[in-house]
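User: Can you help me understand a structure? I only have the sequence.
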Amino acid sequence: MASPKLFTPLTLGELELPNRIVISPMCQYSADTHGNMTSWHTIHLGNLALSGAGLLIIEASAVAPKGRITPGDAGLYSDDNEQAMARVLESVRAHSPMPIGIQLGHAGRKASCQAPWEGGAQLGLDEGGWETVAPSAVPYSEGQRPPQAMSLDDVERLKADFVAAARRADRLGFELIELHAAHGYLLHEFLSPISNQRDDEYGGSLENRMRLILEIFDAVREVFPSEKPVGIRISGSDWVEGGWDLEQSVALARALDARGCSFIDCSGGGLDPRQALDVGPNYQVPFARRMKQEVAMPVIAVGLITEPEQAEGIVFSGEADAVALARGILFDPRWPWHAAARLGASVHAPKQYLRSQPHTLKNLFDA
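Assistant: Let's start by predicting it. Here is the structure, written out as tokens:
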């Protein structure tokens, strides 16, 4: 009997994944105030690395101190960041063969905020916050402190920050990099005409608004080993009239595809609080479906994908090459085990857990 499509291998660049279940980057807001990972990350990532998924991408890691969403965000901009991350990875890798990637990003005008469980509001400069940066001096929402519009020198420093973080990621042995150009953070801010009101070579036309992402992709691709994939997460639409939309996303995806981008992860929204969308199962899958028609690189779908049959339908029908889970796998950290059981597939489990295999599922674990 053939394996369900969800549990067949997938190749990203030269990296072969054992199945098509990806663990999305999920901010934990639990680093120390210098951006260093803590023992929480060892527990959190270690737990997810035992899940049987095909790939684990760790949370968005800021390429500069001002690029953190909160003071508790992980960073990859200092030697201390790198050493703290190395300690976490050493513990996780000692007990899991799962490929591990990292998402690199910069929060832009959405930086300097409280953790979500503290309300998520922008922090004042007297509350441990900092001046934020963006393509233009346009705040995310009314009443917020406006960001500082980036100069061309600032843009060059940003590129250098991404390159430096990519070099650190390679030293740490990450098998994959995902560039974060979604959810209203800095690279997405350059894409959208709502947040980008520049009149230089990085603003105005679609070609100009895409320029920074393409330059950062090229620069990261040049320093990260060619056998390791570099992909991107984008928001397919701002869901706001006059903002970034699916047709512009297609243009960006085609340009990245031509440059050898290894995959595209299709999310949505996050740039403007006026966004109008109906959230429900598969609500962002149409973005992935369209990308599959437009590009050769693998496409990853996200967005309230919670049921095994739902995920199998997405990859079996060709709407996407893989699915990425976030909140769903936090709620059920053994989701891939349970999906394999439901769909009649096999999945990796650590030897310490082999005795947990239900007696009615003799071939569930392939450890």
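Now, to help you interpret it: Residues 122 and 143 are 10 Å apart (CA to CA). The two ends are 20 Å apart (CA to CA). Let me know which part you'd like to focus on.
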